[in-house]
Amino acid sequence: MKGMKTMGVCVVAAFAIGGTAAVSASAALPEFYECHKGAKGSGEFSDKKCSMNVGSGKGAYTLQPGIGKGKAFKGKGGAAKLETVGGAAISCTSSSDSGNLASPTTETNVLISFKKCSLLGKSCSTGTKKGEITSSPLEGTLGYVNKAAGKDGPVYVPSNESEPWSKGTITCTGGSETIKVETTGGVIGVVTGNVNTFNKLSTLDFTENEGKQQFSNFEGGPLEVLESTVVGVGKFETGLQATFINKGEELEIRA
Questions:
Q1: Of 70, 89, 177, 242, which has the highest C-beta tally within 10 A?
Q2: pLDDT reading at 12 higher than 60
Q3: Could you tell me if 109 and 68 are in contact, meaning their C-beta atoms sit under 8 angstroms apart?
Q4: Distance between start and end Cα atoms, the chain
């Protein structure tokens, strides 16, 4: 039973990237900004990255909250390590993500997948392809983890609150045991590369240590932790270690 508990918990920990997107209403959120091109004399910047201020009414570009043309983002990730408090880890060899910006503070249609996933020789999947775990459609909200240092990132939640984070039950099979897992909670990542600077590329990091996520809440926000329910065993706190390199609209996050 102890071995079954450890395996099940690790499976959920590895891929439970869902979470509640509640953020304190009392604190201003970090926002995506665009360099909007208008008619000549309508702005104060002369270049498309809004780096050259020529004075109000003398340029064609304006720096403002926005998502540009709404171009989708997508990216790839390397190996992912997931771990439970007091448990073991599950590993996948690669990962990917994609989505759209819905507003200067939110993301939508986010999909995350992990490939060649295994735990102690058992292949784990959500019923799509062997060894592949795919999320349900997710929504993200930006928040600060350290506003003074300009650190921020998203937390993801299923678009349909009645759905689990994963697209179906996560099932790990191999040998005589089959473990089924459902995921709830939230996990917070940190974004770099496009913070206070325009860039098409950005990096999203999820960092954990012995099952504890590096950041378990936004400043002024509620606790955001992953919980893994192993069918027939129990519920456990988990952590995710993964990195995604994303490419999308040339925007900046003002932090």
A1: 242
A2: no
A3: no
A4: 47
